[in-house]
Design brief:
16 helices, 198 residues, mainly alpha
């Protein structure tokens, strides 16, 4: 009598372990099943261009792809051309390696950098990079980050954009000298927030 494994028919819609790049490309462009597409994103033979297409919908699967570190070395230029949405979804994954954050920081589309700014855990160096960017939205996101150093808090309290200072004024951990500066801020919304909240 056959065992339980033989009674279950094999799942033939998932890519075989030895599937070729051409087969995986065809499957990625013809399959509708999320399970199949996720399997293609995890498959080590999937071409780098197809991974870039799948990264927006299956970022964890792309990051779990065992060939990704090698693809990064061999096809780094192609990875740098992945769409901003794909890079932003990859950068937003907590387990994403540091090089993915670097990729997002260098990406021409701002949404990739915004994904980095929204991460729960960031190094002080990454926070410093974001605080130095031209987009005030990034600096405002950094102003709210819980791991912000006293040095960056002081820097952002003198930011030229009032929205950054307004975001900073909501922090409960402001030092007395920063509070003093913000209480005399030229923008009335910042002064008002501090009067109401403290």
């Amino acid at each position: 009598m056959p065992g339980p494994a033989l009674l279950t028919p094999p799942n033939t819609d998932l890519p075989a372990p030895n599937a070729t790049a051409a087969e995986l490309t065809r499957l990625a462009h013809s399959a509708a099943s999320p399970r199949v597409l996720e399997a293609v994103a995890r498959h080590p033979n999937t071409p780098v261009t197809v991974l870039g297409e799948l990264a927006a919908r299956y970022p964890e699967a792309v990051l779990d792809n065992p060939a990704l570190p090698l693809l990064r070395l061999a096809h780094g230029q192609q990875i740098r051309t992945w769409p901003g949405l794909a890079v932003s979804r990859l950068a937003a994954v907590d387990a994403a390696p540091e090089w993915v954050q670097d990729l997002a920081m260098r990406h021409p589309e701002p949404q990739a950098r915004w994904a980095v700014a929204g991460r729960a855990r960031l190094s002080q160096e990454r926070l410093r990079q974001l605080a130095g960017r031209g987009e005030w939205q990034l600096r405002a996101a950094v102003a709210q980050h819980p791991d912000l150093s006293a040095e960056l808090i002081a820097q952002l309290s003198a930011d030229a954009e009032y929205s950054v200072r307004l975001a900073l004024s909501a922090r409960p951990d402001l030092l007395p000298e920063v509070l003093s500066r913000l209480r005399t801020d030229p923008h009335p919304l910042i002064r008002r927030r501090l009067q109401m909240g403290r």
